[in-house]
Amino acid sequence: TAMNKLMLRGLFAAALTFGTLSLTACPAPYTLPTTAGAELKEDFWQSYFPDFKQDMSWTYKMTVTTGAGTGEGEMTMKVTALKDGVATVVTTGKVGETAITESTTTMSKKGPSGASSGAKYEKTETITVPAGEFKDAVKTSYADSGATSYMWIAKGVGIVKITTGGDATTSTELKSKSF
User: Of 71, 106, 113, nearest to 91 (Cα)?
Assistant: First the structure.
């Protein structure tokens, strides 16, 4: 159905957003910008993303809303290998009960692709998602296919929520983590 196609597109877009996250030594303590709209650089991602470990995983709940209705899906990202500071991550997911094709990408602490350059600081706030409450989550904004998308990052956890707009609105929220 059209909704399943949008869910699949949303799951793959989320996987691409998360993909290409290099583990590097921790820099000096990071200080957040004080002005909304300030670009977030690599030192932000190094400070806020967790250190990647074998078998760590994140599971996300996705909701896509279109004129045709609302659909839900789930995506799990699991670190399957670490080599030279780069994590190999396998992403699996489903739309309803339909499994999507497994994909493999690499992650590092340079920031998610599509957001590592151009991501802007918005504010720090407490956010609640299915995985729980995250105090001092950093809300960021970035351009995504002509629309503004938002991403919340919790220190030591990584991305806890993403919202995108456009013809279909997508909300991706952390459901659970294992690390």
Answer: 106
Does the pLDDT value for residue 15 go beyond 80? no
Residue listed under structure tokens 């706030």: 125
Q: Give the residue among 34, 59, 29 at the shortest CA–CA distance from 160.
A: 59
Which residues are within 8 A (CB) of 119 and not within 5 positions of it... i.e. 6 or more apart? 39, 40, 111, 140, 141, 142, 151
Of 83, 117, 114, the residue nearest 19 (C-alpha): 114
Strand partners, 34: none
**Mean pLDDT for the stretch of residues 122-131:** 97
Whole-angstrom CA distances from 96 to 50, 139, 174 are 30, 29, 17
How far apart CA 130 and CA 162 sit, in angstroms, is 13
The residue count of the chain comes to 179
Q: How far is it between the farthest Cα atoms of the chain?
A: 50
Write down the pTM of the prediction: 0.80
